[in-house]
Design a protein that fits this description.
This protein has helices spanning 10-21, 33-40, 51-60, 70-76, 97-109, 126-137, 157-162, 174-183, 197-228, 232-240, 261-274, 280-303, 331-341, 354-360, 373-377, 390-393, 397-403, 418-423; strands at 2-6, 25-29, 64-67, 79-82, 114-118, 143-147, 167-170, 192-195, 312-316, 345-349, 367-369, 382-385, 408-411, 427-430, 433-434. The chain is α/β, with parallel strands linked by helices and 435 residues long. Helix 14 links the parallel strand 10 and strand 11 (367-369). Strands 11-10-9-12-13-14-15 form a seven-stranded mixed sheet. The protein contains 18 helices and 15 strands. It is elongated, with a radius of gyration of 24 Å. It binds nicotinamide-adenine-dinucleotide and uridine-5'-diphosphate-glucuronic acid.
């Protein structure tokens, strides 16, 4: 099949490359010239494990091409995925201006049947709005609108895309459904869930909201454990063994971040408000998660008995989670800012996210960026682990002891065994307890 993907960011690029790997002929479009020229030279503008190798394989087989010329790309294919950003606007709603701009351009530049699919995360009712817009712009165009939300995670994007738990497809006619059957012909049919367009749009937001709620739930249980003396690891393990609950997304941490959960839960609350529906549960998740990031800075401060001014603090991890260079809504960024505001000298390290963080935290002279973990740890008063990179899991503790007199560690990702850390001579603070 010939497929056009508009927007070559995380989702568009991964989808395009994976569609090509499935054997489709793919054209990826982006209006960012430098991104497209990098991609044409085989350079991936984002950090995503395995993507560069996969791009090379599909480029060598001639299955993928890149362009900034949408009109040209539309000539060769009738199956069009929109994968542009839907960032949060100033009111917390999803900003659909990029999606609508692309839909209008498709309408203006097409003269034969098009299936216009939103892969971007869009609020309930967006498909209907696109339909009206396209009809108004090009009244004679034959087209269908569909929703095919994406559930991949950054850092695990290729395996999530190629081995999904389910593929959600919102359609309103048989022609669109038949095209989707071809697109996803290599996936087991039982994995493809068809619905109407509005329900498909809602499934995406409901899924992200549920996962965010699950994380906030376990984070609050960790707080309770910390005060009453319970053990969060045993608690989450035992809860997760109940198949109705499930073991995934029960890891307590510094709060969820990333480009999706924070913006999507704001957007669904916004849609509910517009429709006079109360989503008080999700609203409380937003508050709980925002408060948590500040609470983490307080926890770090408490580990230094509140004497934080002038102290050297090592911050290991800046990305919102491991295996990405993405720092959007990263708890580590908020923590770095809070510590810096309290007068600490913050020495931050991250294997991939330093360049992005330098821009974000440029206002703080007392946040220093270190190229190596050793430099960040040298003579520190306290080590904070904010992101669960493997490099930090594999830390050589004897080396750490040689680099600094301090034995204080605040582990916001619960990477280590508390008893072992204590036996190794560390003053080890973690989420949901202290050894
Ligand atoms: P992104 O910002 O990485 O990429 C969007 C791309 O669209 C950019 O490269 C931008 O230049 C391009 N673009 C914008 N306007 C354009 C236009 N008129 N023509 C051509 N290209 C244009 O965004 P992303 O992270 O890929 O997210 C895209 C959508 O997918 C969002 O709705 C997001 O919520 C959703 N989503 C993201 C993830 C994820 O892990 N990042 C996962 C699932 C769903
Ligand atoms: C998330 C969803 O997992 C994807 O299914 C979805 O497609 C995507 O959002 C999206 O809509 O864009 P992503 O943001 O890449 O993917 O990352 P996750 O792995 O879900 O992690 C999100 C945040 O939750 C991170 O800050 C992570 O550290 C945190 N988290 C996750 C926890 O604190 N505990 C957990 O148990 C799991």
């Amino acid at each position: 099949m010939k497929i056009t993907v508009i927007g070559s960011g995380y989702v568009g690029l991964v989808s395009g490359i994976c569609f090509a790997k499935l054997g489709h002929d793919v054209i990826c479009v982006d209006n960012n010239k430098s991104k497209i020229s990098q991609l044409k030279s085989g350079i991936i503008p984002i950090f995503e494990p395995g993507l560069a190798e996969l791009l090379k394989a599909v480029s060598d087989s001639g299955k993928i091409s890149f362009t900034t010329d949408l009109k040209e790309a539309l000539k060769t294919s009738n199956t069009i995925f929109i994968a542009v950003g839907t960032p949060q606007d100033e009111n917390g709603a999803a900003d659909l201006s990029y999606v609508f701009a692309v839909a209008q351009e498709i309408a203006q530049s097409s003269d034969s049947y098009k299936l216009i699919i939103t892969k971007s995360t869009v609020p309930a009712g967006t498909g209907a709005q696109i339909k009206t817009l396209v009809q108004k712009t090009n009244p004679t165009l034959e087209f269908s609108v569909a929703s095919n939300p994406e559930f991949l995670r950054e850092g695990a994007a290729i395996s999530d895309f190629t081995n999904p738990d389910r593929i959600v497809v919102g359609v309103e006619d048989d022609k669109s459904r038949a095209i989707f059957a071809d697109i996803y012909a290599s996936f087991p049919t039982e994995k493809i869930i068809y619905s109407d367009i509005i329900t498909a749009e809602l499934i995406k937001y409901a899924s992200n909201s549920f996962l965010a709620t699950k994380i906030s739930f376990i984070n609050e249980m960790a707080d309770l454990c910390e005060i009453v003396g319970g053990d969060i690891k045993s608690l989450s393990n035992a809860m997760g063994l109940d198949s109705r609950i499930g073991e995934k997304f029960l890891n307590p941490g510094p709060g969820f971040g990333g480009s999706c959960f924070p913006k999507d839960i704001m957007a669904i609350v916004n849609v509910a408000k517009e429709n006079k529906v109360s989503l008080s549960l999700i609203e409380s998740v937003i508050t709980s998660n925002n408060d948590r990031k500040i609470k983490m800075a307080d926890k770090i401060s408490a580990a230094l008995n509140g004497e934080i001014n002038g102290k050297k603090i090592t911050l290991l991890g800046l990305a919102f989670k491991a295996n990405t260079d993405d720092i959007r809504y990263s708890p580590a960024t908020v923590i770095a800012e809070e510590l810096a505001k309290k007068g600490a000298e913050v020495f931050a390290h991250d294997p991939e996210a330093i360049e992005n963080s330098k821009k974000e935290l440029a206002a703080f002279e007392n946040i220093h960026f270190c190229e190596t973990v050793d430099t960040a740890i040298q003579d520190t008063d306290l080590i904070v682990i904010a992101t669960e990179w493997k490099e930090y899991r594999d830390l050589d503790w004897e080396k750490v002891k040689a680099l600094t007199h301090s034995r204080k560690i605040v582990d916001l990702r619960n990477l280590f065994d508390a008893i072992q850390m204590k036996e190794s001579g560390f003053d080890y603070f973690y989420i949901g307890g202290k050894a």
